[in-house]
Automatic annotation (TrEMBL):
InterPro entries: Adenosylhomocyst_ase-like_sf, Adenosylhomocysteinase-like, Ado_hCys_hydrolase_NAD-bd, NAD(P)-bd_dom_sf, S-Ado-L-homoCys_hydrolase_CS. It is found in: Cytoplasm. The lineage of its organism: Bacteria, Bacillati, Actinomycetota, Actinomycetes, Propionibacteriales. One of its GO terms (cellular component) is cytosol. It comes from Microlunatus antarcticus. Its cofactor is NAD(+). This is Adenosylhomocysteinase. May play a key role in the regulation of the intracellular concentration of adenosylhomocysteine. Keywords: Cytoplasm, Hydrolase, NAD, One-carbon metabolism. GO terms for biological process: L-homocysteine biosynthetic process; one-carbon metabolic process; S-adenosylmethionine cycle. NAD(+) binds at residues 198-200, 232, 261-268, 284, 340-342, 392, 399. Residues 232-398 form the S-adenosyl-L-homocysteine hydrolase NAD binding domain. Its EC number is 3.13.2.1.
Length: 478
């Protein structure tokens, strides 16, 4: 059985959700129309590691329609939508949804299962190796890099006591595969490139590039304008509230919400919370983003200063230890604590688990109450969402289709770029050219009834651009 999902009987539901999503994903559907005949991804074997949602299912079937052979895992233990995963495996008998996609993902994986699933997508049962990675957060890329280093040096990575459980599990997996004789160097050599979805994964890529450790070229999809300025901002503006409501249903209006980080994601979160009537406090380390938040009308202070007031906390920094266990123990009664950044180390959940005065009471899946000094006069608690993992995908269904169509159209274009023109992408980290970024936006305008003004040739020459674009230089910030 070359797949592992929760329940194949959910496939019919998944298929219905996928067909509704297709209508909301005009960019992806246009990729199918434009490229189906050409089959630019024929011969591509894509190892995918990205939240296994309904929107991802439309992405996967688009890659398949363009000729790719894919294997898929989720990049988070809680983010899989089981119906979508089942639908990809089962298909519906049409050429658009042939089924048979090897998906290894279900909601509520253990960490060991998570890394096993990531490993599963990096090899085909007939011995074929992947030649492309589509990554979100960089876990599949990191597995290959660490395993190659271990194989080359003969030294297995070792986790220390201070390392998170994730690393212990990952290192054990690497040791096991090397013992089994998996040739990671061959896997890495066969990979033409990776296309990376998110801010945190992109940071990892640039770091590896700086340290001369990067093994294959990468396209930074996140920094397409039509990705980070849309998905990160407008996507979270929608899905943050969805996560809070499904998890707790506390009234947001009138409450004090604390948003840590005022980058693209933080901006979407703060706007959404204000839209619900919350008084929003922002914390920042970057003076430019702090000034932006202040001018957008938000109070900017430190987390320490906000503790006395905050009812709802959201971390959106991509940093670590942003909310400590001690700070949680000093929050208002039943404050809701959540993270929307990529990894779970923004909130010190491990620190909570180590405290002898803290006990966890599970309320429902992905909602826990952490009680401090239970049974004493000083008893108090906070509500923690998705164990500190990204709550918009753990407690809700992530961003809506229309915004993901922008992100995923960039993903498809990036896969086609690296796979079909490897000579134009020597080892390095690239963003897509501006004309493709503008194309992604263009493909989404008709659905919103947008009428675009056209430059006259005279105006265009006055601005020094072509009438059909690109309209901005690469360093324009939007
Ligand atoms: P960004 O780099 O634009 O913004 C992060 C902001 O946090 C920066 O302005 C930075 O100065 C600030 N910051 C860093 N450390 C801080 C600290 N200790 N305290 C307060 N502020 C701090 O990044 P972006 O694009 O907003 O992404 C944030 C995170 O969200 C990343 O991990 C990214 O991968 C993830 N992400 C999650 C999505 C989701 O659906 N859950 C969607 C898109 C991105």
């Amino acid at each position: 059985m070359d797949y592992r999902v929760a329940d194949l009987s959910l496939a019919e539901l998944g298929r219905k959700e996928i067909s509704l999503a297709e209508h909301e994903m005009p960019g992806l559907m246009e990729m199918r129309t434009r490229f189906a005949e050409q089959q630019p991804l024929a011969g591509a074997r894509i190892a995918g590691s990205i939240h296994m949602t309904v929107q991802t299912a439309v992405l996967v079937e688009t890659l398949v329609a363009l000729g790719a052979d894919v294997r898929w895992a989720s990049c988070n233990i809680f983010s899989t939508q089981d119906a979508a995963a089942a639908a990809l495996v089962v298909g519906d008998g049409t050429p658009e949804a042939p089924g048979g996609v090897p998906v290894f993902a279900w909601k509520g994986e253990t960490l060991t299962e998570y890394w096993d699933c990531t490993r599963e997508v990096l090899g085909w049962p007939d011995g074929e190796l992947p030649n492309m990675i589509l990554d979100d957060g960089g876990d599949a890329t990191m597995l290959v890099h660490l395993a190659v280093e271990a194989q080359k040096t003969g030294v297995l990575p070792e986790a220390t006591e201070d390392d998170p459980e994730e690393l212990h599990v990952l290192y054990a997996l690497i040791a096991k595969t090397i013992e089994q004789g998996v040739d990671w160097i061959a896997i890495s050599s066969s990979i033409r490139g990776v296309t990376e979805e998110t801010t945190t994964g992109v940071h990892r890529l640039y770091e590896m590039l700086r340290e001369h450790k990067l093994l294959f070229p990468a396209i930074n999809v996140n920094d397409s304008v039509t990705k980070s300025k849309f998905d990160n901002k407008y996507g979270t503006r929608h899905s943050l509230i969805d996560g809070l409501n499904r998890a707790t249903d506390v009234l947001i209006g009138g409450k004090v919400a604390v948003v840590c980080g005022y980058g693209d994601v933080g901006k979407g979160c703060a706007e959404a919370l204000r839209g619900q009537g919350a008084r929003v406090i922002v914390t920042e380390v970057d003076p430019i983003c702090a000034l932006q938040a202040a001018m957008d009308g938000f109070q900017v202070t430190t987390l320490e200063n906000a503790l006395a007031e905050g009812d709802i906390y959201v971390t959106a920094t991509g940093c670590k230890d942003v909310i400590t266990a001690d700070q949680m123990s000093r929050m208002k009664p039943q404050a809701v604590v959540s993270n929307i950044g990529h990894f779970d180390n923004e909130i010190d959940v491990a620190g909570l688990a180590r405290r002898v005065d803290a006990t966890k009471v599970n309320i429902k899946p992905q909602v826990d109450q952490w009680v401090f000094d239970a049974g004493t006069d000083d008893e108090r608690s906070v509500i923690l969402l998705s164990e500190g993992r990204l709550m918009n995908l753990g407690n809700a269904t992530g961003h809506p289709s229309f915004v993901m169509s922008n992100s995923f159209t960039n993903q498809v274009l990036a896969q086609v770029e690296i796979f079909t023109k490897p000579e134009e992408y020597p080892l390095g980290v690239y963003t897509l050219p501006k004309h493709l970024d503008e194309l992604v936006a263009r493909l989404h305008l008709p659905a919103l009834g947008v009428e675009l003004t056209e430059l006259t040739p005279n105006q265009a020459s006055y601005l020094g651009v072509q009438p059909e674009g690109p309209y901005k230089t690469d360093d324009y910030r939007y």
